[in-house]
Amino acid sequence: ENAENMYFFSDLALTLNEPEERVAPTDSRLRPDQRLMESGRWDEANVEKQRLEEKQRAVRRRREAEAVEALEEGKDYEGYIPLWFERKVDAVTGELICVYKGGYWEAKEKQDWSTCPDIF
Questions:
Q1: One MF term from GO for this chain (predicted)?
Q2: Exposure string (b/e) for 23-46, b if CB count within 10 Å is 16 or more?
Q3: Tag placement on the chain: N or C end, fewer CB within 10 Å?
């Protein structure tokens, strides 16, 4: 019903970005620019998007500087380590894949998001 006004998305597709309570603060559904856009506040959404992108660039620059400093000092630098996934080589394909290593559902149950970075 009313599909022509909903870009012909399925019911599932229309609900994928619905807010959900008790999710990690890094959940993409919590992106402030997205929420503003969905409210029709386009100018504010664009300003917020620019702020988020600059914040991401600053984090990337900081990590790159830390990597250079570690290299100059002859130290190892691990860089970003995902919280709930680990990179592994697929035994069949030989490709690098990300495998869930646990922790998300436990953190959600306890509502303990203290390990999550501040990305927004």
A1: cholesterol binding
A2: ebeeeeeebebbbbbeeeeeeebe
A3: N
**For residue 39, what is the enclosing H or E element?**
none
Amino acid (one-letter) located at 14: L
Token pair in block for residue 106: 């436990």
Q: How many CA atoms lie within 13 A of 110 on its CB side?
A: 8
pLDDT in tens, the chain (120 residues): 776 767 778 888 888 888 899 999 999 999 999 999 989 999 999 999 999 999 999 999 999 999 999 999 999 999 899 999 999 999 999 999 999 999 999 999 999 999 999 999
Q: Please provide the size of the chain in residues.
A: 120
Angle at 59 between CA 76 and CA 65, to 5 degrees: 40
